[in-house]
Design a protein that fits this description.
Helices cover 39% and strands 13% of the residues. The chain is built from 3 helices and 3 strands, in the order βααββα.
C-alpha cells in the first residue's frame, strides 16, 4: 500500500495519469454516485475525459477544478443545490 501524500513517478519522471470514475467523483464532492449520473445527464458536470464500458472517467485535474469551483461557490453563498442530496 502506498502511504497518503506519496506521489509515484513513472520511468519518464512524470506523474501517472489520475483518473476518477463516478464513484470517486461522488466521494470527492460528498455526493452519492447517482447524483453524479443525474448531473452529468443534465450537463451540470464537465464532459468526462473518456467514456469507458465501466462508465465515464474524469482526470484528476478536472475533478480538482470542479471541487475548487464548488468550494468558491459555497463560500460565496450562491447557486448550488442548497445542500440537498439527490435520491
Amino acid at each position: 500500500m502506498i502511504p497518503a501524500g506519496v506521489v509515484l513517478l513513472t520511468e519518464t519522471g512524470r506523474e501517472p495519469l489520475r483518473l476518477l470514475g463516478s464513484a470517486e467523483l461522488a466521494e470527492q464532492l460528498g455526493w452519492i454516485r447517482q447524483r453524479v449520473t443525474v448531473y452529468l445527464k443534465r450537463g451540470k458536470l464537465p464532459e468526462p475525459a473518456a467514456r469507458l464500458r465501466c462508465g465515464p472517467v474524469w482526470t484528476g485535474e478536472q475533478v480538482d477544478e470542479l471541487v475548487q469551483q464548488r468550494e468558491r461557490t459555497a463560500a460565496g453563498g450562491g447557486g448550488g443545490s442548497g445542500g440537498r442530496q439527490a435520491r
